[in-house]
Structures are given as C-alpha cells and as structure tokens.
C-alpha cells in the first residue's frame, strides 16, 4: 500500500544546533489554515449520494488506490452507508483535508450498535493520585512546556469557508469516512486493522511476525492489574516517507488485557499518510478484543466508541506541534474503567475532559471486561525495509526539547487507588529508537509536576 507522494526529508537525526533548527522547521507546524490546501466542500447529503452512485471502475484505475477488486468496493459502500444509516447532519466543516460532520450524539454508530437507551454517566472527577512517600525534586527547565486543553487553537475554530468547527450541544464531531480513504486499502478488513498486515504487538511479551511490514518500538511497560492509566504525551509530527514504503509513526499508551486473548484500549497521536492523506499527526484511539485479528478500528470508523463530548476531534490534526530545540506541546490522555465502561479523558493535569467510552461489553468475556493486566507507554512505527522517525527524530539521549517524552505516568488499581508506575524498558530496535529513563521528576500538586517520565524516539532508517 502506498500513501501520498511527498518530498523526501533527510533521515539523519539533528546532531548540531544548526541542524536542530532545520529539523525544527521540518518537524514543527503551527497553523491548520496554512498546512494544506483544503478540498472542495461536500455537503453531507451529497456525500451520501456519491457513495451510493460510486462506480468500481473509477476507483480501480486510480493510481493511489490499493483496492483489490470491485467486490471489495461494494463491501466498502455497504459499510459506509450502514455507518451513516439514520444519521441526520445539519452542520459540517473542513478540518485539515477532512470533512467532519456534527452527528447527534444518540445517532452516532457506537450508540446504535450497542442499543443504548441512554448515554452513560462519566466519572464524577478524575481520581486522585496517591503517590505515597516518593522523594525527589523538581526537574527545573523541564517545567517549561505548553499543555494543550484543546486540540484546536482559538483561531482555528472556523474553517476557511466560514463554517464553525464547534459542534452544537447534543452533537459530536465525526470525521467523515469516505470511499476515497477506504479505497487506499485492498479490503475493508485491511482498512479497519491497525496496519495493512494486521500484525501488532504485545511488546513486553512477543512480536507477531508480520506478513509484509514489521513494527518497531521505543516503549516502557508494567505488568500490573489495573482499571486504567494516565500519561501526558509530548506532541510531535515526524516525517513518514511513503515513497520508501514507510507506513506510520505514533506515540501512545496501551491499556492491555493479557489473560487469554489480547485486548486493548489505545490513545495517542499518529502520523499515518496512507490513512489520513497528509503528513500531520492526528489524535487517534484504537481498540481490539481479539489480538488485532477480526475486531478493532480507529476513532469512530466503526461502531465501538461512544463519544460524549464535542471538544476533541478523533482523526483530526492539532493546531500546534513541538519543534526541535523550540516550543514543546503535550496533552494528557487516560483510560479509566468506571461502571462498566472504559472512559477516555483528554486535556491537561487538573483540566481533564471525559470525552467518551468503550463499553466493557465490547470485550465479551475477555480480560478487559473487568480489568487490564498490562500498561505500556511509548512509540511505534511500521515499515518494510525502511522505518520512519519516532518522536522528534532524535534518540532519547538528546533530552529536553530535542527528544520526545512522556510524563506524569501512573495507574489505577482495582478499587480506585492511583499509584506511580514502576516501568521496565523494552527496546526491540535500539539501532533506530531508544528510551532514556524512566526518571523521577518530583510531585508538587497542583503545579505542573513531572512525576515519572522518560524520553523516547529515534531517527528510524533501514537497519531497524
């Protein structure tokens, strides 16, 4: 599968101040309006009409598409039309190169699939961290960072055509699932899988042998029974060279059930040009109930996640990204099992919004119906003979503002008490990616504390 063709960016890490400035210019971004040329606006009803009247022949001959055959397109048509069955949209807008539709909360795919008579009540507050008697001091300069309470800056709340990107009360923003995007994959199953081959990891245990592509990591982990975890993730947008058959680069946390079938709830940022169509990291979520085999999807691309808040845009880009040696941006992400639902919180310490949930019933009788047994934090990339940068593109030893980091990492034990992590380091590809830490950076609430943190990432390359 091939994504869009883009200009090749040098793959070497930043090794001097001058090169760091160049890398900062290449990696960082600060304006959605200037990032790409936006497509023509397509009203929602016209979009549905175009799906119904799509001709397989026109999709099969397009150079960017990997569509296997006309039967695969018919399956995709049915899938998209079913996803939007009985959905009424009165407001749509452009965000990056995507359309988003403001879908009534009760009409979103997750609510219809689960047959919900009402939306679940979120946790009353973010559970309090109980750090015990941890010692240590503040990290000093590491305190200078911009934590983003929202994906979009104030000046990005209206698209270039004047459409508001703020959905009305009672509706949620749903990134439009298009045939153009699906046709870049050979089949519907390939589209829904986390990567084209469907191979994934349980990195502290094993790596599933890929069919074509392979996954590489810089990550940390802890085997511990839990009902969720919290992680503040440094936000970057590393280059992914689709011309070299690189697939994606991401940073995330994994909440994992390991007793029997591997099950996950995942969240982070991801640069995946083959899916999203451009070179900017997007906010993403993912889940699987059977080890990435026949279940799972990104964002709201299938009827799994129930979104309850309109302030975050799954599959959408960010207004700002970190730059090497310059401004640093981050966001807090957490999962918490509450009253039978895995709730997702996004925001900043002290300002977390419960955005929605995966019903625990998605996991059947598997481990995550009641708890998780493993937590993981770090980065992942996918390629065949070449792999993209992770994090900033620098190795973890480059440190503050030159390498990616994750911080304020802790978990909830069954019963609701919260504890600092005790992480082990996994490095399947140390020639391309590394971990530095974890370290203790102090805990002085309610100020901007660091707690446990680590640096991650690297330049990638062809010898991973």
UniProtKB/TrEMBL annotation:
<dbReference type="InterPro" id="IPR004314">
    <property type="entry name" value="Neprosin"/>
</dbReference>
<keyword id="KW-0732">Signal</keyword>
<dbReference type="Pfam" id="PF03080">
    <property type="entry name" value="Neprosin"/>
</dbReference>
<feature type="domain" description="Neprosin PEP catalytic">
    <location>
        <begin position="207"/>
        <end position="464"/>
    </location>
</feature>
<dbReference type="InterPro" id="IPR053168">
    <property type="entry name" value="Glutamic_endopeptidase"/>
</dbReference>
<feature type="signal peptide">
    <location>
        <begin position="1"/>
        <end position="33"/>
    </location>
</feature>
<protein>
    <submittedName>
        <fullName>DUF239 domain-containing protein</fullName>
    </submittedName>
</protein>
